[in-house]
Known about the structure:
Elements: H1 2-12, H2 15-34, H3 39-58, H4 66-86, E1 94-96, E2 106-110, E3 127-128, E4 137-140, H5 145-151, H6 165-169, H7 171-174, E5 180-186, E6 189-195, H8 204-207, H9 213-226, E7 229-238, E8 241-249
Antiparallel strand pairs: 1-2, 1-7, 2-4, 3-4, 5-6, 6-8, 7-8
Amino acid sequence: MREETMRRDLSLQQPHIKAKIIGTTLIIIGIVFLFISSSLYIKLGFAALLIGFFMIIIITEKSVPQIISNAQIEGNADAVKQITKELNLKGNVMFIPKSDILTEERVFIPLKNMNVSLPDIDNDFVFSTGNDGKSLGLVLPPSGLKLLHEVEKEVDFEDMDIDHIEEKLQTFVGMDILKSVSLKKTQDQWKLEVGNPAHCTQNSDFCKQYPCPSCSALLSAIAKASKQKIQVENTVHNGKKTTFFFTMEG
């Protein structure tokens, strides 16, 4: 009996199981919110439903054919676009590294870019309603979190010196995930240039809010290695290359 309990407890700690539990909870919350006659709660309810389905689908341990995987990625991107549109979120994405209360990287999409006050984000945090004086916004797993986990089977991004991060990022090129990758400091910003990222939307506005899995995995790796928050300032598309300009803060 004790062994069965231990196995059950360990299985509940697996990322895909936790994601399904949180996703199901959000779907229930979303349904409840839809019955509250308030425009804010209706929007939050709709968003909770989408995020719930999103979290159940995006994190999976099963291997699927490439065409199905591609369709899932595109579907997830469309879901996030709809969520940010319904909540009228206009701010650029911020990548959040792990912390004492957060066991995996997250992204925060704020309502606007000016004077962003980041809420205390833990594993279960999803909505910041602004009632506590923090910025209104949405917290999601990065679209490239699963990809980063796969890359980390080859290289460890934990606790790295910022000057050596670019060298480690070349692992993405060696694994044929990207054509090229370059990370450089330019005045008061950092410049990340990515060659031929898969599933790139070529939409700079959306790239600034929720980058594709390849770019997201890179930015998450940088946040993890540096233990600093990454604030995307701008994105530029030039042919098959995507360039991110971002700042970092502890």
